[in-house]
Specification:
171 residues, alpha+beta, 8 strands
Length: 171
């Protein structure tokens, strides 16, 4: 069941989407919708409808578990924004991962791929909400601090450790 909210007197269907991003590779995990689903063959972020009484963060966590086998926690989610069009409101969260991995996709997807964030909008066909929300991911990813180049004389620090140190400094 889709939860509907009202904005300006009109009913709106709310969907929640999650972009799984690996900052170390600047790539995002996408799923290709299965042949028996609506919008079959289109690439999308993981997500779906907000159930009645469910908070958007709960939806994000549920959808990641159901569609990709990813266990997450509300503290893992970064809210990026929304895209509103017609009677639909699409909310976008990001979760980051230290390294790319193979998701455990369910029946709703027929394939998955790690795609460069810069090439995201060039991937066809894209699911409508993913197309509308992708600019938010690109903008967010451009603000992620990049680690300085390592010299041969400095101890190696993983890009993930460096990124986490930067985040801790700013929080």
């Amino acid at each position: 069941m889709m939860f509907r909210t009202s904005e300006g007197g009109k009913a709106m269907r709310v969907s929640v989407w999650v972009a799984v991003v690996c900052p170390g590779t600047s790539r995002v995990l996408l799923a290709k919708r299965g042949p028996t689903t609506r919008n079959a063959g289109r690439w999308n972020f993981f997500g779906g409808g907000l159930d009645r009484g469910e908070h958007p963060e709960e939806t994000a966590i549920r959808e990641l578990a159901e569609e990709a086998g990813i266990d997450s926690h509300p503290d893992d989610l970064i809210y990026l924004g929304e895209a509103v069009g017609g009677s639909k409101r699409n909310l976008l969260f990001v979760v980051t991962t230290e390294a790319e991995f193979e998701p455990i996709i369910n029946h709703e997807s027929q394939a998955w791929a790690w795609v460069s964030i810069d090439d995201l909008l060039a991937l066809h066909p894209l699911h409508g909400p993913t197309q509308k929300l992708s600019p938010l991911v690109r903008s967010w990813s451009r603000n992620i601090p990049r680690p300085p180049a390592q010299s041969a004389n400095t101890p190696q620090e993983s890009r993930w450790d460096w990124l986490m140190r930067q985040v801790a400094r700013h929080w």
